[in-house]
Write a structure and sequence with these properties.
Layout (H helix, E strand, L loop, with lengths): L1 H7 L4 H18 L11 H24 L1 H7 L11 H22 L1 H19 L7 H20 L5 H25 L1 H6 L5 H5 L1 H25 L7 H26 L5 H20 L5
């Protein structure tokens, strides 16, 4: 049983839960016209399942192409080795076919988008993640899409707020991918990848990550000061400010500082986890709308 559980980790279940919660939170809290009966709208859950199946397939195919690098970067988490090749490819195929077919239940457009997403994730794992910055941008766009898709399916969702959270997801994911590239540099070099730290060195990759994080902090504060704060009043305004300062801005600032002092692989692993935490707390702020 333990072996089966470890094999299923190839699908990154925690990440899938986060993506599902991102979409559900966007639907429930950024649609100000939502009615009680909308809570039973199966279209939402079908959309979420469709995306999660495609995303799970993306994680699986990434482990396949990353198996050489993972033997160096994370030898205790090489989940692909736990799968029989036939079972692996069958599962990967079923996830993608299932994701597309279920997406068709939402709309033909979503089905087409799922086909494109599956193709992008495959191409990313096979080629783009090996190139300077290209892979980072693609992963960031895919993460941002998970939030923006809700607006595509449910146009009553507040567009401006959805766009704000979509941009934040892109920026934080882009920063995290840069940090992960530094963390995984040794194994990526053995596998023949050409990531930013390998081509230009760790220092430049860290500088870009710091620059992206500074931009993210400034963007976050500016948008809140100029616009989002006007959506709240009274006690709720102070609660919203306190939450975002403590749970979003302060962690980003601490990560920014520690990027300058990090030296070892474990340091970058912690910073990568910290950025994932910020993404989760940032989306959780939707609950206050």
């Amino acid at each position: 049983m333990r072996g089966i559980f470890r094999a299923l980790l190839i699908f990154r279940p925690l990440n899938l839960v986060m993506i599902g919660l991102f979409q559900i939170s966007t639907f429930f809290y950024l649609d100000f016209k939502i009615q009680v009966e909308d809570l039973n709208d199966l279209t939402l859950y079908v959309m979420v399942i469709s995306l999660l199946l495609i995303t799970a397939g993306g994680y699986a195919i990434n482990d396949y192409f990353d198996r050489k690098a993972d033997q160096e970067n994370k030898p205790n988490r090489c989940y692909f080795q736990l799968w029989h090749p036939i079972l692996y490819w069958l599962t990967y195929s079923l996830l993608n076919v299932g994701g597309v077919l279920i997406g068709y239940l939402v709309s033909p457009t979503i089905a087409i988008l799922m086909v494109l997403l599956a193709a992008i994730l495959f191409t990313y794992s096979a080629l783009f993640q090996r190139l300077v910055l290209v892979g980072n941008v693609i992963v960031s766009l895919c993460t941002a899409f998970s939030i923006y898709e809700v607006y595509l399916v449910f146009p009553d969702t507040n567009f401006a707020l959805t766009l704000f959270f979509t941009i934040m997801a892109f920026l934080l994911t882009f920063t995290r991918e840069l940090v992960k590239d530094v963390e995984d540099r040794q194994g990526d070099a053995i596998a023949g990848y050409h990531t930013l730290p390998i081509v230009f060195g760790n220092s430049r990759a860290i500088m870009l990550a710091q620059g992206a994080l500074v931009f993210t902090i400034v963007f976050f504060l500016l948008i809140h000061y100029q616009w989002i704060s006007t959506l709240f009043s009274g006690t709720l305004l102070y609660v919203y400010y306190a939450y975002n300062i403590i749970c979003v801005v302060l962690p980003m600032w601490l990560i920014l500082v520690r990027l300058g002092t990090a030296r070892y692989t474990r340091d970058y692993a912690r910073l990568s986890t910290g950025l994932k935490y910020v993404m989760a707390t940032g989306v959780a702020s939707m609950l206050l709308f």
